[in-house]
């Protein structure tokens, strides 16, 4: 299976709902995503992304043989951090451990560094999410430190890790 990133299409809604309707995935994402996650939720998300500010939000479907199996997004920061962006991603559980996360992350960082003026991309996975940390490290992100007691997820106070990649190091 070939993994590629591409812009979202409204036709991806069923695949997105299938991938994201999984509590194991939601446990590693920020709050605000409904569960169960429906096709209507997916259509609303895709429509929002397609209408978003193209200079601030770069969101892509992660695909395997053109089927949407996950999502990856880069979100430009503001003010003095305007050349910095946060990245977040997930892959549907049937596709875990097959290299799709690293492939999509590399493709996305390459796209951002080649097509925008962003010079730093960072990620903040939960400290317990070893798989995500490994993906980041495999793609050249450097561990910058632990953000102690930085989040509350499912009623539990959690540490997060800070990773980043700088444009000069990625090229």
TrEMBL record:
Keywords: Transferase. It comes from the Bacteria. Pfam families: Acetyltransf_3. Residues 3-163 form the N-acetyltransferase domain. GO terms for molecular function: acyltransferase activity, transferring groups other than amino-acyl groups. PROSITE patterns: GNAT. Transmembrane segments: none annotated. This is Protein N-acetyltransferase, RimJ/RimL family. It comes from Dysgonomonas macrotermitis.
